[in-house]
Amino acid sequence: MLARREILKSALLAGAGLAAAGRFGGAEAQAMVDSLRVFIPAAPGGGWDQTGRTMEQALRAAGLVQNFQFDNVPGAGGAVGLPRFINMRGQEKTLMVAGMVMVGAIITNRSPVNLTMVTPIAKLTEESEVIVVPANSPHRTMQDLAAAFRANPGAVSWAGGSAGGTDHILVGLIAKALGIDARRASYVAFAGGGPATAAILGGQVTAGVSGWGEFAEHVAANRMRALAISAEARVAGINAPTLKESGIDVALTNWRGVFAPPGINDAHKQLLIQLMTRLDGAQQWQDLCRQRDWVRAFVSGDAYTRYVAQETDRIGGILRDLGLAT
């Protein structure tokens, strides 16, 4: 009888241990998904690719997914890859990493397809934009730069990424908030962060706009001065006020999230939402986000669907103001 009791006790303890592992996402947890296909509508090494690879690292460490397959299809800010992903209709356990850049690219490229044709699963992260000037700039604050921009919009030049991208959209929003025709903004588009940084440091432009990661090293070394960030509230580790604190009623973040193909059933949609919910709660993911200066901004399911629709309307409006959409 005693031996039987001990056996039963051991079995109960073992079951409790497995349940705890599943709750806390430890390496011992049973995998939720045996294999996950991750579609990246961009070249290896970029922001979406980094997000996908970081997801893999965290999901493997948490024991939630066993195997991964990556497909990279670059071009036109995701507008090339999106039609191919739409053609993966009904494919289960498949996720596309995309975000705000794709919303703008779809509009500016007049793409016949858009994100309403896929299945939104979850928004994962946000990254603030930052406005910088060279260290020797006469503009000490965002209010100084805004005053110069109001006085002579064409005389204030802004360096950033591709036309119609996040950086350009932010400049347009700032212009609009200051009562300036967005088309009068002198925006200088660069193909990469290196040339834009060189132009800012060399005084060839008045100011620069990009994600914080592009300029953090130069701000820390006192080669650039951060005037403002585009987040709703101050961000830990960034010593700069928000645009709203500076009297400019604008907030914009470069968000990234995941989508499933069209035509998946509700059970598979819920499985993917649960998987991303577990990812967001995993310590491994949280640590990696901190290392990369990504702000976790989890929104899933129907709320994410509404968010994407609202962002599409907002971005479409500013791109029309900039003359980049009809």
CATH class of the largest domain: Alpha Beta
Poorly predicted regions are: 1-28
CATH architecture of the largest domain: 3-Layer(aba) Sandwich
Radius of gyration: 23 Å
Q: What share of the residues does DSSP label as strand, in percent?
A: 15-25%
Alpha-beta classification: alpha/beta
- How do the SSEs run, as a string of H and E? HEHEHEHEHEHEHEHEEHHEH
Q: Domains counted in the coordinates: how many?
A: 2
**Rounded average pLDDT:** 90
What is the 3D shape? globular
| DSSP strand tally | 10
Helix content: 40-55%
Alpha carbon gap, first and last residue: 81 Å
Tally of DSSP helical segments: 11
CATH superfamily of the largest domain: Bordetella uptake gene, domain 1
Biggest sheet, in brief?
10 strands, mixed
CATH topology call of the largest domain = D-Maltodextrin-Binding Protein, domain 2
What does this structure look like?
Strand 5 (157-160), helix 6 and strand 6 (186-189) form a beta-alpha-beta unit. Strands 1, 2, 3, 4, 5, 6, 7, 8, 9 and 10 form a 10-stranded mixed beta sheet that branches. The relative contact order is 0.17. This protein is of the alpha/beta class and 326 residues long. The protein contains 11 helices and 10 strands. The chain has 2 domains: 30-126 and 254-321, Bordetella uptake gene, domain 1 (D-Maltodextrin-Binding Protein, domain 2, 3-Layer(aba) Sandwich); 128-229, Periplasmic binding protein-like II (D-Maltodextrin-Binding Protein, domain 2, 3-Layer(aba) Sandwich), CATH 3.40.190. The longest helix is centred in the first third of the chain and has 23 residues, at 2-24.
